[in-house]
Design a protein that fits this description.
heterodimer; A: 10 residues; little secondary structure; 0% strand; B: mainly alpha; globular; ER-Golgi transport (chain B); ER lumen protein-retaining receptor (chain B)
Chain lengths: 10, 212
């Protein structure tokens, strides 16, 4: 599941 | 991490390094919009505050630190070290016309009404338009050095590659972030006119100059 608040892109 | 994301990040890195090297080697920031560079420094600062709150990967942390460091180094070179070569008269875009609406929009449309999330949203919206002072400067002077066009091409290519990354992630991971996607499309579209000139002129060995 992705957490939209954890931004893993730069 | 997919190939589009990785090449996008590397393209972004290449753009930043090209600009730094251009200014450093020529000892001049002629033709470069200091305002755009301040906006990019602001973009990285407000976006990467999560360096303090969450760890994603060593790659992620290192790239963020490099981007922020280079952004401030570029601003320093333009406004301090090589200030005498800065062409302020042609860098006349009114940045408040970007920052104020973008600030308002990030408060209104975000994923979560929290300080860090609003600042992240602000950075995404601001990045999409941060190049406008630079494009405005080129349209005003009617020309750009070839090395500057390489910088702009890499910078535009980076967000275009991210668009493919988002398509990839939607299909293979079910992931999508509407705020980043819409802003990314806007950002890429702003470069289209430049891409056309780059391919039809610069890649054929001609200098980028606009008809008077």
């Amino acid at each position: 599941e992705y957490n939209i608040y954890q931004h893993d892109e730069l | 991490m997919n190939i589009f994301r990785l090449t996008g990040d590397l393209s972004h890195l290449a753009a930043i390094i090209i600009l730094l090297l251009k200014i450093w080697k020529s000892r001049s920031c002629a033709g470069i919009s200091g305002k755009s560079q301040i906006l990019f420094a602001l973009v990285f600062t407000t976006r990467y505050l999560d360096l303090f709150t969450s760890f994603i990967s060593l790659y992620n942390t290192c790239m963020k630190l490099i981007y922020i460091g280079c952004a401030y180094a570029t601003v320093y070179l333009i406004y301090a070290k090589f200030r005498a070569t800065y062409d302020g008269n042609h860098d006349s875009f009114r940045v408040e016309f970007l920052v104020v609406p973008v600030g308002g929009l990030s408060v209104l449309i975000n994923h979560d009404f929290s300080p860090l999330e609003i600042l992240w949203t602000f950075s995404i919206y601001l990045e999409s338009v941060a190049i406008l002072p630079q494009l405005f400067m080129i349209s005003k002077t009617g020309e750009a050095e070839t090395i500057t066009t390489h910088y702009l091409f890499c910078l535009g290519l980076y967000r275009a590659l991210y668009l493919f990354n988002w398509i990839w992630r939607f299909y293979f991971e079910g992931f999508f972030d509407m705020i980043a996607i819409v802003a990314g499309v806007v950002q890429t579209v702003l470069y289209c006119d430049f891409f056309y000139l780059y391919v039809t002129k610069v890649l054929k060995g001609k200098k980028l100059s606009l008809p008077a």
